[in-house]
Design goal:
Layout lengths: L5 E4 L6 H12 L2 E3 L22 H16 L3 E11 L7 E11 L4 E9 L6 E4 L2 H10 L7 E4 L9 E4 L2 H15 L2 E5 L7 H18 L12 E7 L13 E7 L6 E5 L18
Parallel strand pairs: 1-2, 1-3
Antiparallel strand pairs: 3-4, 4-5, 6-9, 7-8, 7-9, 10-11, 11-12
Length: 278
């Protein structure tokens, strides 16, 4: 379905560096990147432009816009969200969505990568040593920084700072003029190798989903639509919160299939049972 076709990667921030080699190798497509494609209109990490939609909708809009610009009917876009990990309290997380849109065949394949491997952070600093401590903590200068006069400020934002001289001069200016400066990690992919690795992992997941074919009609993207907890405890045999089965569905012919024990175990250890280990 994909072999030999042109696929546009809807990015402004060099995500094609990790996406294109994998997609070309495993899906047999030819990747292109639209010129002067401005993804900032869909939202920015620094907050000057708010993201109005959820990540999947935003990725979908990026795909449609890139198709419009290039005339392609096959596109990929990713969208990252950063904040508290949904399961590990007080731990920052990178939640990456990557979407493949095939307008010719009217299908979408979506993959997600959630990881605590991120340098996402921000801090208001009042002196040079605080600047150095923060920069070291977030892997500067291999990872870029954003500098602004305060956390709420939406003017005079300096992005993509990647060397000590630039950082020192910028922070010195803000400290002298305002008494403080706000330092933040620049989460744009080209300034954040850790995030780029997460996008690469999400791309692998997407490829695996693209190689999952509907048993009925052969359409790629035969995927999980619902998961069911209830795996019985090995000791008391009462249902636990662990996954017992998944429901997979084809988005074209709507064929459905249940997959029992997706993690290849029929019972859960009692330490994960709310009855045996309340």
């Amino acid at each position: 379905m994909f072999t030999g076709r042109s696929l546009v990667i809807a990015t402004k921030h060099q995500k094609e560096k990790v996406i294109a080699p994998l997609i070309e190798k495993y899906l047999g497509v030819k990747c292109i990147v639209p010129e002067n494609f401005d993804t900032d209109v869909f939202g920015t990490f620094a907050g000057e432009v708010e993201r109005d939609d959820d990540p999947i909708t935003t990725a979908r809009k990026k795909c449609l816009r890139a198709m419009e610009l290039t005339g392609a009917d096959l596109a990929i876009a990713s969208e990252g969200s950063f904040g508290a990990h949904p399961h590990l309290f007080f731990v920052p997380a990178d939640d990456e969505i990557i979407l493949l849109m095939d307008r010719k065949n009217q299908i979408e394949i979506i993959a997600r990568e959630l990881t605590a491997e991120t340098n996402f952070n921000g801090e208001t600093i009042f002196d040079h040593q605080q600047m150095v401590n923060f920069a070291d903590r977030v892997s500067f200068p291999s990872h870029g920084l954003i500098v602004r006069k305060s956390k709420e400020a939406q003017d005079n934002i300096i992005k993509g700072v990647t060397d000590w001289n630039h950082l020192d001069a910028t922070v010195k200016f803000y400290l002298e003029k305002f008494g403080s400066a706000c330092l933040e990690t620049d989460m744009r992919a080209l300034y954040n190798p850790t995030r780029m690795k997460c996008i690469e992992s999400a791309t692998f997941t997407l490829i695996n989903k693209a190689h999952s074919y509907c048993p009925s009609c052969g359409t790629p993207g035969f995927d999980i639509v619902e998961s069911f907890p209830g795996l019985p405890c090995k000791i008391c045999h009462l249902p636990t919160r662990s996954l017992m089965k998944q429901l997979l569905c084809c988005q074209v012919c709507t064929f459905k299939e249940e997959k029992m024990f997706p993690h290849d175990k029929e019972y859960e250890e009692p330490r994960f049972c709310d009855h045996c280990n309340p």
